[in-house]
Amino acid sequence: MNRKIPGKIAIKKKRPKSSGAGEQVMIMKKLFAPKTSSKGIVTGKVFVRKEADLKPSQEKITEEQTGAEMDRFFSAKKKVKEDLAVLAEDNDIFGAHLLIADDSALESGVLSRIREKHRNAEFALAETTEELAGIFEMMDDAYMKERGADVRDVGKRLMAELKGIRPDDFSEIREPVILVARDLFPSDTAKLDLNKIKAFITQEGGITSHVSIMAKGLGLPALVGVSGILDEVNTGDMLCMDALTGEIIVDPDDRTIAEYEKKQKEYETYRSTVRASGSLPAETVDGRRVTVCANTGSVEEVRAAAENHADGIGLFRSEFLYMDGSCFPSEEEQFEAYSRAAKLCPRELTVRTLDIGGDKELPYFDFGEEENPFLGWRAIRISLDMKEMFCEQLRAILRASVCGKIRIMFPLIVSVEELREARELLKQCKRELEREQISFDREIQTGVMMETPAAVMMAEELAKEADFFSIGTNDLTQYLLAADRGNKKISSIYNSFHPAVLRAIAHIIHAGHAAGIPVGMCGEFAGDPRAAELLLGMGLDEFSVSSGSMADVRYAIRSLSYEAAQKKAEAVRKCRTVEEVMEVLNSVPDMSETHSCSSNAVHLAD
Ligand code: PEP
Ligand code: MG
Question: I want to staple 526 with a disulfide (CB 3.0 to 4.6 A). Which of 172, 406, 521, 558 is the partner?
Answer without folding.
Answer: 521
